Amino acid sequence: DRVGDFEFSAFEREQIEHAIHHYAEPRAAIIDALKIVQSQRRWVPDGAVYAIADILGVGAGDVEGVATFYNRIYRQPVGRHVIAVCDSIGCFLMGFDQLYGSIQQKLGIKPGQTTADDRFTLLPIVCLGACDKAPVLMVNDATHFNVTPENIDSVLEQYK
Ligand code: FES
């Protein structure tokens, strides 16, 4: 069942076609195509999954599989900034619970939700490979280390 109302912008189409030419196999461009759409729309709607499958000549299931594998491809709408808090063991032992709780309390949202002003979406994420600087979180593409309930405000205020 196709989702009919999605169309690539001219920019998206051009960027995706450019990506296709980088690889011997169009399939290899799936992640690039997902990132291109997400960079323009913040997230990847269902229609985009089908459109990417069409333009690459692969199955929609293949596109969905790649989107699911990468935990920073969003298949639901997100706010202007995405806070992804590491909940793996290193951060868990160093105060993840307190940090995650304080963010939820400050923003008035639960994990998976977006603030009413569309400013932040809060999500968990697996180990970011910086366990010696736990607790660790990302906001968009930036990683923040040793984040605590005491210094979280100074992190969040960088994102308007
Ligand atoms: Fe959090 Fe590794 S456990 S960065």
Helix and strand topology:
Elements: H1 10-20, H2 30-41, H3 46-56, H4 60-69, E1 81-86, H5 89-93, H6 96-107, E2 120-125, E3 137-139, E4 142-144, H7 152-156
The protein binds FE2/S2 (inorganic) cluster.
What would you note in describing this structure?
It is a single chain. With 160 residues, the protein is an alpha+beta fold. The protein folds into two domains: 60 residues, Orthogonal Bundle (Arc Repressor Mutant, subunit A), CATH 1.10.10; 76 residues, Glutaredoxin (3-Layer(aba) Sandwich), CATH 3.40.30. Strands 2-1-3-4 form a four-stranded mixed beta sheet, covered by helices on one side. A hairpin with a 2-residue loop joins strand 3 and strand 4. It is elongated, with a radius of gyration of 18 Å. The structure holds FE2/S2 (inorganic) cluster.
Short description:
By secondary structure, this protein is of the alpha+beta class. The chain has helices spanning 10-20, 30-41, 46-56, 60-69, 89-93, 96-107, 152-156, and strands spanning 81-86, 120-125, 137-139, 142-144.
